[in-house]
Hints:
Elements: H1 3-8, H2 15-21, H3 26-31, E1 36-42, E2 48-54, H4 56-70, H5 88-94, E3 100-105, H6 115-124, H7 129-139, H8 152-159, H9 161-173, E4 176-181, E5 184-189, H10 194-210, E6 222-225, E7 231-232, E8 235-236, H11 245-259, H12 268-284
Antiparallel strand pairs: 1-2, 3-5, 3-6, 4-5, 7-8
Helix pairs in contact: 2-7, 6-7, 9-10
Amino acid sequence: MGLWTRLIHGKGRSAEELAAWLGTDVHELLAFEQSYTTFTIPKRGGGQRRIQSPDRALKIMQKRILRRVLSGLTVHPAAIGFERGRSIVTNARVHAGRRIVVRMDVEEFFASTTAERVRRYFRRIGWNRPAARLLTKVCTFEDALPAGAPTSPRLSNLVNFRLDARLAGAAARAGAVYTRYADDLTFSFAEDDAPRCRELMRLAGLIAEDYGYRLHRRKKLHVRRAHQRQYVTGLVVNRRPNLPRETRRRLRAIEHRLATGRDATLTEHQMAGWRALQHMIETQSGPD
């Protein structure tokens, strides 16, 4: 009996198999409460981001699901954020030296990734109905992916494989390339073709809507041509990915102050983080 036939008839890997994978039993999985603490943190671009942090027991189980159920599954190559071996630099590198760079932002990305889509994904990869319901119960909250759960980043990539495939296909047909870093969509063109760019932006919005997402149309839509400074995941990509010039100047000045024993706006520990970022950029950006 094929996988699809087993799924249609409610078959597939069972809740008992799931519990065994997770080193527990079905009754314990059923007993898990969706217990979260909700708070907000400032967004980098202004406003507040809502975080839903699971309690200790739930977080432990979610981490176990992440390691034992989700870690070996395949995401689309265009999904860069949250993936091992991929970074803001590998994301930016795809779009370096392009004539047009377009960045679009998904509104309320995790909150718009519904529990029903998560449940259908678990069914699609071979879990039967009870197992898929259990996995969905443990991994979602208030009918969506909770922003503070350890499973949410990976699930957001896995669930959106088809979204990424359609956006990548639309980009290729328009002569562009596409990547997604969490809720940030980036398209870039080798040629300065404004009509194709506008059409792709329109299509991207329609495709996103098919999966329950809305794209910011104005505030967080950025179109930059080669004569303008082009940013992707915080890095300038007009040539090879790099920190903005003013940031590099500021860091050099801070390095000098720290080296000469004077007060600086960053601590040595904070500066070590910036050095690590600069090293990552230098090693992953590729040749000039």
